Amino acid sequence: MRCPIQFAIVCTATASLWAQPVAVRQMEGEVRGFLVLRAEDGTPVADGDSLQTTRNGHVVYHSVYRFKDGSLQDETTVFSQNGHFRVLSDHLVQKGPTFKHPTDLSIDAVTGRVTVIYTDEKGDQKTESKHMELPPDLANGIVPVVLKNLAPGNESVTESMLVASPKPMLIKLQIHAEGEDSFTTGEASRKATRYNVHVDIGGVKGVVANVIGKEPPDTIVWILQGECPTFVRAEGATFEGGPIWRTELVSPVFPKNVSAAATREKK
């Protein structure tokens, strides 16, 4: 499967099994953040930007990761928040040496048109386009938003996601809270809820995956609860067969000689 979870992740599901989209408890608005993608030993592998804007009553979330080797992961998700969160469209691009199978996945959840442009084992570019009946709980690009809006006491949720394998497939994410972990900001101690995101590969493909040991690893997402819940960190694979990487928020760092005092002295 080619898709980040946090962004990921297979079974075909009937309409009777589809869950309802998560109700809006915290409205999304204009946000700009800086991200870093690290290996398990803490080594940075990519710098990221997170931009969220509003347009015509809809929310547009755009995340970009630029890897040290020149690779790129770029995703734009448009969703509505009229009572419930609904993904309207999602466009994910993964290309460069980091990704064994460069992929361009476009989802129009309004019309149901899904297009995947990928590179096969021979290096040839292929295109798969089809119409799919997409469920209202589609979570592509908004998993952290879903987690921030779970009602108090609701520690589990099942959401749908569309992935490229390389053909587009609809899958289920089983998400549940595992507990709390402590972290610090400055000298202040805080606690974040730890959520486990499990990929449920149903049917024959799921059985085969369990037998041959190719079931995707779980992803862990940390959310700070309270008056204004917010994403803190995530750990998981960003593509099929990829390593476990950690996504974190980072703060701007200025050179030591840049300060308000130094600026005043130059005047």
Structural notes for this entry:
It is a single chain. The protein is mainly beta. It has one domain (15-253). Helices cover 9% and strands 50% of the residues. It has 3 helices and 14 strands. The protein has helices spanning 143-148, 203-212, 260-266; strands at residues 31-39, 44-55, 58-67, 72-82, 84-95, 103-108, 113-119, 125-131, 156-164, 168-185, 188-200, 219-224, 230-237, 244-249. The protein has a 14-stranded antiparallel beta sheet with strand order 8-7-6-5-4-3-2-1-14-13-12-11-10-9. A hairpin with a 4-residue loop joins strand 1 (31-39) and strand 2 (44-55). It starts with 30 loop residues before the first strand and ends with a helix. The relative contact order is 0.19. Mean pLDDT is 86; it is low at 1-17 and 203-213.
